[in-house]
Amino acid sequence: MTGEVTIDIPKAFQFLLEPHRYKSAYGGRGAGRSWSFARVLATLASYQKKRILCTREYQNSIKDSVHKTLSDQIELLNLTPYYNITKTEIISNVGSEFIFKGLQHPLEIKSIEGIDIVWLEEAQSVSEESWRFLIPTIRKENSEIWLSWNTGAKTDPTYQRFVINKPDDCVSKLLTFRDNPFFPNTLRKEMEYCKQVDIDAYNHIWEGLPHSISNALVFKDKFVVEDFESPDKVKYRLGADWGFSNDATTLIRNYIVGNDLFIDYEAYGVGVELEELPQLFDSIPGSRFTKIVADNSRPETISFMRKKGFPIVGCVKTATTKAGFVRDGLEFMRKFEKIHIHKRCHHTKDEFEHYSYKIDKKTEEVLPILAEGFDHCIDAIRYSLEDLIRGTGIDWVAVVGG
Q1: Which of 31, 332, 380, 382 has the greatest number of C-beta atoms within 10 Å?
Q2: pLDDT digits (tens, 9 = 90+) for 29-83
Q3: pLDDT tens per residue across span 117-146
Q4: In a domain, 125, yes or no
């Protein structure tokens, strides 16, 4: 490749083209960090020989890496003729190499010589131990460390290192959806809905402000967000919660192993029209042959979805009050030893991180009253577990077309 090279990225990411030891882009959802990083690196590696390590705290397989993000951007940039892309490698015609390794394998990373650039995706999860190992390992002259990450807590090692106590020659920028000229309308609807129902959650998720773990959180210390493979033979449970007007409609898939609950898929849409519901539900594997338990407040919607081929029924609210029905479900969910949320279930993760009890503004005491609005995924999970919550444990299998 010869001549001048143009990279189409948002202006906020121009600092990636400047020479710095550390380049950090953090903040809220929808800022376009991952694809901007991928675009710059893919273009750079197409005409300059670079050895680029793409890593994160835990990477158990190539599916956990940014391999697909890079491959997609190479194709969109019409750079495919300059690369040889396999299932595990990306190598350019000029000899650039993208290497994909998790930080949980330090000896493997330490053995890699001559790294020019490290790209840490989801850098908010990098531990202090990993930082202490990685930084001195990347020692080639003019080598760089790039970080793309969503803001976590102020106490996170990454936040402390690159926001509170920035090292020399470090550019660390707080970026939000406002910095992304390609911010999609689908995400805009979700952002506006979040702002409407929970301003604290909005400030963390979309504005990128750090969050604090509160004693008011319903599921404090009960859940973990991670990558995992769902087993082949397991009873999947699906629950649905309906959106009203500009509310969120959700469909959640989960299963139980031992005394742990695993949430592996979510469908989430704000302002979804009735005729769009089948397409939304079809994004969940098995949704047309696995029982779906839904909020029974919309019988006409349940009837519509049943006619469209989904084995869906309304929940049975046995408690005398809505509050009692919700309370019983939450108490049951908290009995799990641990709730595992797959990393792809972003909205479920957001709700578990923010679903809380109200706090008395004068005394700052936690009240036995749930704060409403940030609970659509959690409601769907409760519906999916209804038979267990009610103590029936009845298995139910649907036959498509039956």
Answers
A1: 380
A2: 999 999 999 999 999 999 999 999 999 988 777 887 899 999 999 999 999 999 9
A3: 999 999 998 999 999 999 999 999 999 999
A4: yes
| CATH number of the CATH domain containing 49 | 3.40.50.300
**Radius of gyration of the chain from Cα atoms?**
23
Strands (E), 194-321: 223-226, 237-241, 248-257, 260-270, 292-294, 312-314
> Cα(347)–Cα(280) distance, rounded to whole angstroms?
15
Nearest to 23 by CA among 116, 133, 130: 116
**What amino acid occupies position 119?**
W
Asked if residue 245 and residue 168 are part of one domain, the reply reads no
pTM: 0.72
Residue 187 lies in a domain: no
Asked whether residue 107 is assigned to any structural domain, the reply reads yes
pLDDT tens per residue across span 326-341: 888 888 898 899 999 9
Dihedrals φ, ψ of 85, to 5°?
-115, 120
> Domain range spanning residue 68?
11-179
Q: In what order do the strands lie in the sheet with 312-314?
A: 223-226, 338-342, 260-270, 248-257, 237-241, 292-294, 312-314
